[in-house]
## 1
Amino acid sequence: MEHAIDAVIEIFTWVGIGAGLLLGLLALILKLADGTWLTARAVVEHGDDSTVVRWFDEDGGVNGAVLTADQAHQIGDHDMADIFYRRGRSNRMRLTHGSPAVRAVALLAGGLLALGIIAMIVSWVLLFVRG
């Protein structure tokens, strides 16, 4: 029975640390690929069929984007909204500063790393308790 527990702990250690590091690297690559997003104050235009936001970028250019139903629901009936727009790209915006995909991968990487470290500590404790 001890050998089975040791094997499970060893698997959790290696899988947790290995997958956590790989996913951490993937999160870093996704963060770099996501680019730079800047804050802007946008004017919200509520139409019959859609909701449009318009804002000035850092170069003084006027940008606009049609909101999805979820984004329109988040903004509600407000006439102004704080948005984040992509530097160097026209008409790209979102309502969150960080990418939800990057956040999800980073949290998964952190959880797997924590699992691997906890399993490694448990393995050391069992090693000294049995010895």
Note: The chain has one domain: 2-130.
## 2
Amino acid sequence: MIQNIMIFLLVVLVLVACAFFYARRKILTVEDKKHLKVEIDAEVTKMTKGDPKEAIMVGVYKQGTSYFKSEGRFSEDLYQQPDQHSIFQIGSLSKLITVSVLHALIREGLVTMDSTLGELMGDKYELSEDAKSVTLHQLVTHTSGFPRVPKVFIDKTVDQFGKEDILKNPYSVLSFDDVIEYLKTSEGKKESGYVEYSNFGTGLLGHVLEVVSGERLDCLAKDKICSALGMNMTSTELSDEMNESMVQGYDRNGDKADLWTFGALEGAGGFNSTAADMLTFLKHFLNQSSDSKNPLDADGGWMKAGKLEKFYGNKNVSWHNGMVGGFSSYAAIDPVDDIAIIILSAKATDLTMPGIMLMRLARTQSWATSNPS
């Protein structure tokens, strides 16, 4: 009896293994239909699931050619379709901009990756011993030991909005003074060196850059990054022109959501941008890849390809995603195949899987011989 059960289990395991490797081979063996534009259009339609209300904007760059595709409309009342110049909140893609500002200041000699909070801020603010030793490298790579968001910040947000509406606009109730007050104790901080994704850590990095430079993060981003690249519609502050181009965001339930505002920690998620600006930004990283052996490591703020990305063949991809109350985003670059993709959605929904599939599409399909734009 036991022998029969063992044989049965062995057969099941063999069948499961065969099914896995068959599926894996099918996923990796993709026919190039030689019309990437058409394939992108179909993929974007899948992302929206036929819902015309929420706006989504996709940009794909591959080997010298860029293409944008949108679905949905600005709002329930405005039927106009968004385009590559429409404004979205980009959430945690802001971290890539903040880290790029850091690298600009490193090139200018203001700081190094090994500079500590104690060295950069200790003479102006009271810091706990744990905080003093944290390096900028640790803030960038999420190895500082700081929590994702300190409990005292969560408590303050709950007091303001209540548990039910904690995601209404959580960072709006925080200030730089709250950040400095927390650093006096660093309550809840773990030992440095272990990876734990921290919005607080990257938000703090933005404040550190402000302290050492004497300029606001938004001004630094414009001076060091956006102006040079022509990213004229990327900012933490909305101008009148940007406000007019801002699409309506929706929460995960499809209800209208207010814009998130950042009284503190805007370096972690406070930027607004367009698909055109963000694709330009991503192409900048691809250009850097020819100047360095490893420009897209964790020091750049990127996530490296994990098991899921590699399962779909995206082994050379660096990526990041983001989400705020009414928006979500996904960005990825493949320096080997010279590809960059950006997805901006006016709904708070996880875009990681759609992003993986879009990158797979961009890798395996080629443009038609005619111009796709």
Note: The chain is about 40% helix and 10% strand.
